[in-house]
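hiii, so i know i said id send this last week but things got crazy w the move. better late than never?? heres the sequnce for the chain we talked about at the cafe, plus the structure i predicted for it. fair warning i was half asleep when i ran it
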Amino acid sequence: MEIFGVPIQAFLGQLLLGLVNGSFYAMLSLGLAVIFGLLNIINFSHGALYMMGAYVAFLALDLLGLGFWWSLALAPLIVGGFGIIIERLLMRWIYKLDHLYGLLLTFGLALIIEGVYRYFFGVSGQPYPVPDALRGATDLGFMILPNYRAFVVLASLIVCLGTWYVIERTRLGAYLRAGTENPQLVQAFGVNVPLMVTLTFGFGVALAAIGGVLAAPVIQINPLMGSNIIIVVFAVVVIGGMGSILGSILTGLGLGVIEGLAKVYYAEASSTVVFVIMAIVLMVRPAGLFGKEK
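okay and structure toks below
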């Protein structure tokens, strides 16, 4: 049986692999959307912080003997703490300035972080083992799906939907949104807005670190892994709508699938299809699919 001239096994197999890539896109674009949507900062260092999360897992295993599950808990705390330091020392001075200042500052920060890791680790990839509990694969009939890749999709969905629920459906999320729109009013009710902003930035960075740990067993860990993916992730955020939490999640998953299917039908276009879609969306709806028109 074929689908548009392609064997159904190849079609469904690439569909699932695209969903795995889309999970990483959704996770990273979610962190960007949280930071931009709540703080109005375009965080170009997000890819470098994603890479830091992967290296925390690698160093925890190599130096301390701590496995994947420990790293999944420690990396968000360590890298998120680093994000809090960045926010307190650098970001707090540019909140009222044009978005360009935040973009330039975080771009320079990304180059510094990447340069430091290239100095200590070089550019060759470092392998990271799949945790024992997630080794092996499941026969789906049309493909053999590695158990770890299925876990990545599930974990990404849980984190993404959990974050969306907290921000959009809880009192804490209401405070966060109100604190960015009218901080003086929220502070009058006894809410420590500067602390809330700092923790929000740290949380967005922690999401990048989680993505880095999840990616470690799938790809070779190297200092360039963040810069290789951040451009695509920015395209995902633009298509979904800058600052839209749900838009970033759905667009990340959807574009991962589209990119995967493009490899089946026209492999040469798989690396550019996301940007073609971005150009079309911006022409039709400049605010993005889920963004709010101003």
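btw The beta strands are 2-3, 6-7, 137-139, 144-146. thought thatd interest u
miss u guys!!
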